[in-house]
Specification:
This protein has twelve helices and 15 strands. The relative contact order is 0.13.
Length: 364
């Protein structure tokens, strides 16, 4: 390619950038106008709702369906997510709590779902995330609920038993674990490896093969593991990209998870019900009588109505010894006529039924 051809292409790119700048600015001005209209129409004492999960899910899905390329659907959607996040911050910056400290996969999930313009606030424990949302100190919370290889996060499920809260969305995050060391680490003298218990479990085979005699120390989070390693000469940490960047650590080994498709699902919790989008999930908690065939009775209405169950978990009930509750996720929205009928049937047979929320299925 000649220098003249390159110059012409650069001029064209500059022209496109100017058009993009004007269009993004126009979109931002529209967001400001939306905020003005919403505030004008408020009834006295009513709180404005600026973030609409169903609206954002619809926009992202539409972008991916209409994407002409050459950028992939996910890359294009992520660009629009950041534009939407920044424009929403002009209306009202969202406060989002997550399981901290800074640099955890929970923070990465929060930023993936809401974009980088939100105010993300780390919490020391999952139940603290729930309490902040219930108290109204933050708009939303992001908590892990299940991993593709290690299963359910029981602490999160138990918190749903204790708090009245609404699930507003879900995030699926591809999890890559790296073995990280600090500037002072003597790589030939590593005697302990820090990480969260689930991450240690997700890398068990790799650790058995490469560091079979090194002590594995479970800590509160991968970010905490990275923080400890920063100042220790004989330790390493298993953590992700955000923690590595935050604490300035070096990757001694990359992508050491035992399963290449290792992913974690996070739930977005809040206090607002989400209208249908046409591609939704619903989560419920059900308590059944302790009798033979109870689980069968619970599942029959789903089967008879062709509703797809995506997850079912059992946890001990807080109401009595050897009694259990079922956490169930299924496709559809609680406002759908078919789902309504199924929920009514379950309500007739169950000791208790709690609908945790209906929310858009993860699009990214």
């Amino acid at each position: 390619m000649s220098e003249q051809e390159l110059k012409a292409l650069r001029v064209r790119i500059d022209s496109i950038d100017e058009k993009l700048l004007e269009l993004i600015s126009e979109r931002a001005r529209c967001a400001q106008e939306v905020a003005r209209v919403k505030m004008k129409e408020l009834v006295e004492g009513e709180q404005p709702v600026f973030y609409r999960p169903e609206r954002e899910a619809w926009i992202l899905k539409r972008i991916m369906e209409r994407n002409p390329g050459p950028l992939g659907n996910e890359e294009m959607a992520r660009l629009f997510r950041e534009i939407m996040s920044t424009c929403l911050a002009l209306e009202q910056p969202l406060k989002v709590a997550y399981l901290g400290p800074e640099g955890t996969f929970s923070q990465a999930a929060a930023l993936k779902h809401f974009g980088h313009a939100v105010i993300s606030q780390p919490m020391a424990a999952i139940d603290e995330v729930f309490r902040e949302v219930v108290a109204g100190a933050v708009n939303f919370g992001v908590v892990p609920v299940e991993n593709s290889t290690e299963g359910a996060v029981s602490h999160t499920l138990d918190c749903f038993l204790e708090h009245d809260i609404v699930i507003c969305g879900e995030v699926e995050l591809r999890i890559h674990h790296h073995l990280l060391v600090g500037d002072t680490t003597r790589t030939n003298s590593i005697t302990r490896i820090y990480s969260h218990a689930q991450s240690l479990a997700q890398c068990r085979k790799w650790l058995d093969a490469h560091y079979p005699n090194v002590e594995r120390v479970a800590v509160s989070s991968n970010a905490e593991a990275a923080r400890r390693v920063k100042n220790e000469w004989n330790s390493a940490a298993i953590a992700g990209d955000m923690a590595a960047s935050l604490y300035g650590l070096t990757r001694l080994a990359e992508k050491i998870e035992d399963h290449p498709d290792n992913s974690t699902r996070f739930l977005v919790i809040g206090n607002q019900q989400v209208p249908p989008t046409g591609d939704d999930k619903t989560s419920i908690i059900v308590s059944m009588s302790n009798k033979p065939g109870a689980l069968h009775e619970l599942l029959v209405p789903f089967h008879e109505n062709g509703i797809d169950l995506t997850r079912i978990e059992t946890r001990p009930s807080r109401s009595g010894k050897w009694t259990y509750v079922f956490f169930i996720d299924f496709m559809g929205h609680q406002q759908d006529p078919l789902v309504k009928a199924v929920l009514e049937k379950i309500r007739e047979e169950a000791v208790a039924l709690k609908v945790l929320g209906s929310y858009p299925r993860a699009v990214l």
